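Annotated sample (chain length 731).
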Amino acid sequence: MAAPQRSYALSPAHARLLRASALDEDVSRLKYVSGAREEALRRLGIERVGDLLLHIPRRYLDFSHAYTVEDAPLGEVSTIVATVDRVVEKHPRPRLSVVEVSLIDETGVIQAAFFRQPWLARDIKPGDRLALMGKVEFAYGFKQMSSPHFEKLDERAQSGSIMPVHPVGEGISVAWMRRIVSGALERTDGFVDALPARIRARRHLMSISRALRSIHFPTSFDERDEARQRLAYDELLFLQLALRLRNDANLLDVHPVAHVPGAHVAALRDALPFSFTDEQERAVGEIVNDMAEGGRVMNRLLLGDVGTGKTAVACMALAAVADSHTQACVMAPTSVLAQQYAVKCGPLLDRAGVSWALLTGATPADERASIVERLASGELTVLFGTHAVLSEDVVFKRLTLVVIDEQHRFGVNQRNALRAKGPGADLLVMTATPIPRTLALSVYGDLETSVIRTRPVAGAGVQTRVLTESNRDIAYGAVREALEAGQRAYIICPLVAESDSADELDDVPGSAPSLDADDGKAAPKVRLHSVERELERVRRTFPAARVEALHGRMPNHEKDAVIDAFRRGDVQILVSTTVVEVGVDVPEATVMVIEDGERFGLATLHQLRGRVGRGRDAGRCFIMTHAKKSGARSTAQERLEALERTSDGFALAELDLRLRHEGEILGLRQHGGVTLRFVDLEADVEIIQAAHDDAQEILRYAHDLASTATMPLRIEVVRRYGDVFKEVSGG
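Output written by the structure step:
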């Protein structure tokens, strides 16, 4: 007789674990996903079910507050659901198409006009039911909307509901995306939450399973906002854990050197021609104390506005390395900046008895060979350099301090390649780009921060004026006055050559021509200034002055020669790109003219104007712009007017954060770093601080997240950021 069949019921915990594992399943396992839809999802970067659930709606159609045509208030953004009656494509002038759609409901007619979207005449058909969202106006006897958001509605659109509109691409419609996401939520509903319940309760956060359902299909906008807060908290917490685990010496199986200050540190302090300010002294103390602690690797950010004396503070750290008989490397993003370090720090290190060298792409072969040999033997203590220090033949005998300046200009792989040359080396990151506190806590939260706000030598300061082309004579008059006084001037251009595309410039809000919402007319295309064209104009305008060009496409030895000539005064006017943004220190330069100022971000403009007024003579910066004055201030105007009002880099950084994405401010997207998808750095101050504090607390009692209680956190960190634990050591 056959043995009776046993049935095994899954425990609730086991069932939740299985649903959690579904997050890692390939997206092709989901219902409705195959063929063109699968390819479309992959083009959107959606490979796993978890990727799909984090692909949140870009907006929502609120049918709970939808108006009829008759009741829709004029002058306000409203949602109206109506049926298409007629579609007409018109061409009021050459190269301008307008698709006019007439829609009706039981109360009246509304017309929607779409500019330069001729394909809509084919996509929208009479009888389609549309939800329109836009500003309602009245003209020619009808209510109208100009280029509204719209969505074709299916049978699922119910009155009184909130419908998500997900980002989609070719091969998948918004309606199909909703169905697929709904199926994914059913497949994973109620999975294990990696975040400990006590933290969820303390921070008043909903469960992750509920948050994902609520962000996609909210019953109210309050519920949607609560869901976004949970996703933002998770994003910040797991980023913090990943960064801290990556940099934890205990996980790298290395033993950091305890740098005990000695004779070289004392000699360097004596060699300084000035005394440190209180802020500098505090920063030195924090850095030296970190380096003296042998149990952990130093990970510190030295943040200082233009001219606040970060270089002198960093020199103290270099001297501490000499006292431990090991080595340090300072990597700068440009040869100009690397050379500036050598010019400023070299004499101080010489007087303190610390050996050093400069290595760039322009270093002669025989000199390079000598530097490499001295590094390998340990004879050389400090190396200043550019990307050239990353070459395989550059080997340190014992690298224990890595200093990276303007680290957002380097890729993640480049930073890690340098740190891999000295596993367990202390890290000092420096930047003159003021960073808002919330951004520092989130993206640089694994770094302890030292801040220098005030200049040791106040200098004469810089006066900034924003001018249009009609007032160019004011800027050129200032250049002429500077030359007559024996001073020097910069002319800054966004492009190197006339043939360069403006598309390669930073995507700065308010900088590009846009369509007028009323008539679809494009603003006239602006011809941007290039170094090549401006060089000739400046030479004609100032024939008695020696004018030279400087840009990143020049060979390093040519750039160095031009900078040296400008420092000596052999060159009076430098026509340059933003290559002078950091590292060029010429006290006699007192005037700067920045062409096409609306094409630069606030941080770049602030850094650029910091090149003048560095000596005893006052500096003047003139920002030329095509941004027109209007009743409603544009983003470009707001940015430029802020530069006229204040020279406080931290205040400007906060404004920049409101105007731009955090990844655009620091170049994170372009350089392989992390961008924050769910976090609002201006509104989420409390969430950012909470995630920062919680990450520190968690790692205090579970330093590697390997305990049973914290293993779900570790799994989620690896799921999001890969195996971060061996990244620095090169494993």
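Annotation: The chain has a mean pLDDT of 82.
Annotation: The chain is about 35% helix and 20% strand.
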